[in-house]
Design a protein that fits this description.
Largest sheet: none
Number of strands: 0
Strand content: under 5%
Number of domains: 2
Shape: globular
Helix content: 55-70%
Number of helices: 8
Low-confidence stretches: none
Radius of gyration: 15 Å
Distance between the termini: 46 Å
Structural class: mainly alpha
Order of helices and strands: HHHHHHHH
C-alpha cells in the first residue's frame, strides 16, 4: 500500500493502486477503456473531483513511486483524462492542482489547468491564492523540455497574473 502524509480515502487508494498495477503496458494506457478506471467513470462529478485530487496527491507524495515509472505513468494518464472533464473544483482544489502541475509541468499537467481555471472563474472571482500558484507555475512551464509546445497555454495563464 502507498504510504502518504495526507490520508486518502481507502477506496480511492485501492482504485489508484489498481490503475497503477494494471497489466496494460504504460505507453498503451487508454483511460476510457482501462478496466481499473471503470468505477471512476461511473462516479458522479463530485466523486470524480475527489478522485482527481486523490490521484494528484498520490502522484505528488510518492514522486515517481520508486523504480516503477510505468505505474506512475498510468495514474498520471488517468488523472489527465479526469482533468479534461468539467468537475466542480473549488479554490482549495485549484490551488492543490496548480501545486501538482508545478511538479509536472514537463509532462503536460500545466496545460490542463487553463480550462480548470477558466471554468472556476465563470462563477467565482480570482483569488490571491490561485493567482500566486499560477505565478509559481509559469517559470516551471518555461523550464520544461516541452516549453515550446506549452507557449500557447502559457500566454493565457499569464493573463491571470497581477495587473
Amino acid at each position: 500500500m502507498v504510504q502518504t502524509a495526507v490520508k486518502l480515502p481507502v477506496e480511492y487508494v485501492a482504485i489508484i493502486e489498481a490503475i497503477a498495477g494494471s497489466d496494460e503496458r504504460s505507453q498503451q494506457v487508454t483511460p476510457k477503456r482501462l478496466a481499473a478506471m471503470q468505477p471512476v467513470w461511473q462516479m458522479d462529478r463530485s466523486q470524480q473531483r475527489e478522485m482527481a485530487l486523490a490521484m494528484a496527491v498520490w502522484l505528488g507524495q510518492g514522486a515517481d513511486h520508486g523504480d516503477n515509472w510505468g505505474h506512475w505513468y498510468k495514474v498520471q494518464r488517468c488523472l489527465l483524462a479526469l482533468l479534461r472533464r468539467t468537475l466542480p473544483f473549488n479554490e482549495e482544489d485549484i490551488v492543490t492542482l496548480l501545486a501538482w502541475a508545478q511538479t509536472r509541468a514537463w509532462f503536460g499537467g500545466a496545460t490542463h489547468m487553463l480550462k480548470i481555471i477558466e471554468n472556476y472563474l465563470k462563477d467565482n472571482p480570482m483569488t490571491e491564492a490561485i493567482q500566486g500558484q499560477i505565478q509559481a507555475l509559469l517559470p516551471e512551464m518555461e523550464k520544461s523540455h516541452r516549453a515550446s509546445s506549452q507557449r500557447s497555454h502559457r500566454a493565457p495563464l499569464e493573463g491571470f497574473g497581477p495587473d
